Amino acid sequence: MSAGAQSAIDEFLEQEQHKELLRFTTAGSVDDGKSTLIGRLLYDSKGVYEDQLASVKKASVNRSAGPIDFSLLTDGLKAEREQGITIDVAYRYFTTPKRKFIIADTPGHEQYTRNMATGASTAQLAIVLVDARKGVLPQSRRHAFIASLLAIPHVVVAVNKMDLVEYSEEVFDRICRDFREFARDLHLKNVYFLPISALEGDNVVSNSPRTPWYRGGSLLHILETVPIDLNFGEDMRFPVQYVVRPTLDFRGYAGQVASGVIQRGDAVMVLPSGRTSKVKSIVTFDGNLAEAYAPQSVTVCLEDEVDISRGDMLVKPSRMPHVSRRFEATVVWMASQPMNVDQPYLVKHTSHQVRAQITRLHHRVSIDDLSKIPAERLELNEIGVVSVETHRPLFFDPYTSNRTTGAFILIDPVSNLTVGAGMIAERAEREDRKRGGLAGVEFERSRLTAAERWERAGHRPVTIWLTARTEVAYLLERELFDRGCMVHVIADDVESHLLPELAKLSSAAGLITICTSASDEQAERERARDLVGSDQFFDIDPQSLSTKDIDAKDQIAKLLEARGIIRPDDRGIGGDGI
Amino acid sequence: MSAVAEAISPRTLTHLRALEAESIHIIREVAAEFAKPVMLYSIGKDSSVMLRLAQKAFYPGPIPFPLLHIDTSFKFREMIEFRDKYPASIGAELFVYRNEEAIADGANPYKLGTQKCCGFLKTRALLDGLAKYGFDAAFGGARRDEEKSRAKERIYSFRDAYGQWDPKNQRPELWNIYNARIDKGETIRVFPLSNWTELDVWQYIHLEDIPIVPLYYAKERPMVVRGESLLPIENDPPLMPGEKPQMVMSRMRSLGCTPCTGAIRSNADTMPKIIEELFLMRRSERENRIIDHDQEGSMELKKREGYF
Ligand SMILES: Nc1nc2c(ncn2[C@@H]2O[C@H](COP(=O)(O)OP(=O)(O)O)[C@@H](O)[C@H]2O)c(=O)[nH]1
């Protein structure tokens, strides 16, 4: 298209192709002026935006004057509040020539922690409203706390109703000081303080002459210029959502880059298998890409035939996430049924869903002063620090360094409801060591494949689970060893919660593994079955075994023969016969 | 045009590409986690965008679920022609479902009123259609900016075994993690375009050159002029004495059933002109201080479009 032929609208559309998207959330106590502020942003920005095209077209604009009740624009929530209907996050949209905005508008009342967390989860910026006459209230602290908990990179403290305090610099300064004071422990990344009048429009869209002492930009200026960092840290994480396999020649892994950059030719590792390969191509409908970055949705093809399915993750071998079944996390409880320790839940984390248990509730966190409160359970809208144990390892990063791979939701497997939102803590690794756990061990990073080990050993590395028959275990070990097997007993003298990982370790090394648990440890047994794979797992029913140890041993050996794990006993015929 | 070339600064996405990436993520999640998804295909602009996004999500593979059109028998001829041609041309499978019983009974808006007519020919037909094939997840093209009451709609919207929206059962949605657990018989509606605005949709159609039904473009069309309204004469609407069709340069702002879709006078015969027209209409609304007029307006549209 030649420049001369370009009409105003074409120019405008061209410009529109260079706009970024900023998601932000707003929080404020009732009557702080949130609806008025949002209404004004929606309305004034519409003006700014539409005038832009109009001015390109050299059309005249007749601005009508007179007060408008801006809160009418967003009063949907108010009506509901009055009717006592559940108040929820409402999403609103506006655009300026520079950016498109999505507002997650969350009601400010104290019991709505759940909504604030929801709105904050996708936000890159939070506006915390403070009434200039009232100063920093407990509610403001809560809002700031949730913003920090959800790791929102930018927080704008908007001191509203400045018109009612005569635009006093002193009042403003005092509120800023108070806010800084309590926010010291919050690890907020970027905080902006801003004096506004939502009603009068001061410092909302443009700088106000009534606050000459204020040097910063208007709210809209801040919204239009804060850096948007969606790469969430440097480390590449690509959770596989879907395997695209239209023909035998094409096998692509579809997903959204969670963080970092993936490039053609990159060496990548597949979790959990630990297999490595190289990126052959990054495929999209619009052509192949040399690289893809968060949050692009693409399809990745690898050089090698690797078995990958949904829930797996591609990473760079030099920058591994944590691989563990145990981690600590801060959880926001979102269900009316309280959170109880040792109840089964489902954890959904990236494209992975696994069974899980909350093994410990360390304490509750007060959203007023961040103090730790001893607690037995978490009620709706409460926040607590918990230890989580999953049935299969997750691949994760601490939430503070990766808002995608550090986040998960908890689902009640009975009601199917989303009952909690979790943010994984930094301490994950230390927690594992402290507990003497093996969950962090990366079993499958070896360059040897299971098939190679199998070939060398001459048998599959099955796991045999026995309950309360230690003597049988050792007899069987001798028998199998004498028959040329690589075999290993893990007896009940280790802590039972370690049995599954040890079994996995031993079977990963290619050994036939005999586990004996002292009593019927159902949970451990199921976890072991999960870890080593059910086709490799023999759960021996104690009822079916002879009470005589030697006969019981023979029974199991016969079973293994029948299943083709070991060859029938041929020692009598060849070898050492006289 | 590749996404990289458009980026404003290195490694940031434009707003349309960010929306696109989010929608593709949603579509893939549903395809991976539900046994039998379907995409509701209304032939309109939002459906057209949704269909393009589905193509992108599984490229170079085919779209792994079918489309379902609920046909009221009152659609414009050009819509049906488009429906029968375009999805097939991109290799998508299309089912059409009609409430034949009600159609045979002569259901129409003049006799039943709009609401009842929609109830039989759209809502009932939709529920029956979903049940007939056993679909457990249905994509719809609804957007949150269409009207105030939609602002809180989830991306995954849960329906009980009777297809009813259950306010108690709606789940909080955090990050990009969607809870897809349902019991047997329950279904969900999924709205991958939740965060798109009307302007985003038009801009995307323009940017991607997505084929749409020609009715959206202005052309000389036979219309009955009644006051401010332009009534399309397809399907023989009842006319008042003396009313006669005349050729009017006009187009449809939204596509629905012929009796309930009015045309507007317009010269917008290209996509940029349509976008420009949308702007000018909004500006005049703003200048006339009709706050939110477009939202109220789209509520009407919603009714006419048969909101899924
Ligand atoms: N004087 C003054 N009043 C305001 C300002 N912002 C909001 N208000 C008024 O404060 C009241 C509550 O505002 P609203 O936006 O409904 O508060 P919300 O409950 O936080 O949404 C309304 O009467 C508004 O007109 C302001 O900047 N100055």
Keywords:
heterodimer, A: 578 residues, alpha+beta, 7-stranded antiparallel beta sheet, 13 helices, 25% helix, 27% strand, B: 308 residues, alpha/beta, 4-stranded antiparallel beta sheet, 39% helix, disordered C terminus, binds guanosine-5'-diphosphate
Fold and architecture overview:
- The complex is a heterodimer of chains A (578) and B (308).
- Chain A is an alpha+beta fold.
- Chain A contains 13 helices and 26 strands.
- In chain A, β17 and β18 form a beta hairpin.
- The longest helix of chain A is centred in the first third of the chain and has 23 residues.
- The radius of gyration of chain A is 30 Å and the shape is elongated.
- The N terminus and C terminus of chain A are likely disordered.
- Chain B is α/β, with parallel strands linked by helices.
- In chain B, 39% of the residues lie in helices and 15% in strands.
- Chain B has ten helices and ten strands.
- In chain B, the strands form two sheets. In chain B, strands 3-2-1-4-6-5 form a six-stranded mixed beta sheet, sandwiched between helices.
- Chain B is globular, with a radius of gyration of 20 Å.
- Classes of the chains: A alpha+beta (578), B alpha/beta (308).
- The complex binds guanosine-5'-diphosphate.
List the helices and strands and how they pair.
The complex is a heterodimer of chains A (578) and B (308).
Chain A: H1 8-16, E1 20-27, H2 34-56, H3 76-83, E2 90-95, E3 99-105, H4 113-121, E4 125-131, H5 138-149, E5 154-160, H6 169-183, E6 190-195, H7 219-225, E7 237-239, E8 242-244, E9 252-256, E10 261-263, E11 267-271, E12 276-283, E13 291-293, E14 297-302, E15 313-315, E16 322-333, E17 344-349, E18 352-365, E19 372-373, E20 383-396, E21 407-411, E22 418-424, H8 428-434, H9 450-457, E23 463-467, H10 470-482, E24 487-490, H11 499-508, E25 512-517, H12 522-532, E26 537-539, H13 549-562
Parallel strand pairs in A: 1-3, 1-4, 4-5, 5-6, 23-25, 23-26, 24-25
Antiparallel strand pairs in A: 2-3, 7-15, 8-9, 9-14, 10-13, 11-12, 11-15, 12-14, 16-20, 16-22, 17-18, 17-21, 18-19, 18-20, 21-22
Helix pairs in contact in A: 4-5, 10-13, 11-12
Chain B: H1 3-6, H2 15-33, E1 37-40, H3 45-58, E2 67-70, H4 77-89, E3 94-97, H5 100-104, H6 109-112, H7 114-133, E4 137-139, E5 156-159, E6 187-190, H8 198-208, E7 219-226, E8 229-232, E9 246-252, E10 263-265, H9 271-287, H10 293-305
Parallel strand pairs in B: 1-2, 1-4, 2-3, 4-6
Antiparallel strand pairs in B: 5-6, 7-8, 7-9, 9-10
Helix pairs in contact in B: 2-3, 3-8, 8-9
The structure holds guanosine-5'-diphosphate.
Guanosine-5'-diphosphate is lined by residues 28, 30-36, 71, 160-161, 163-164, 197-199 of chain A.
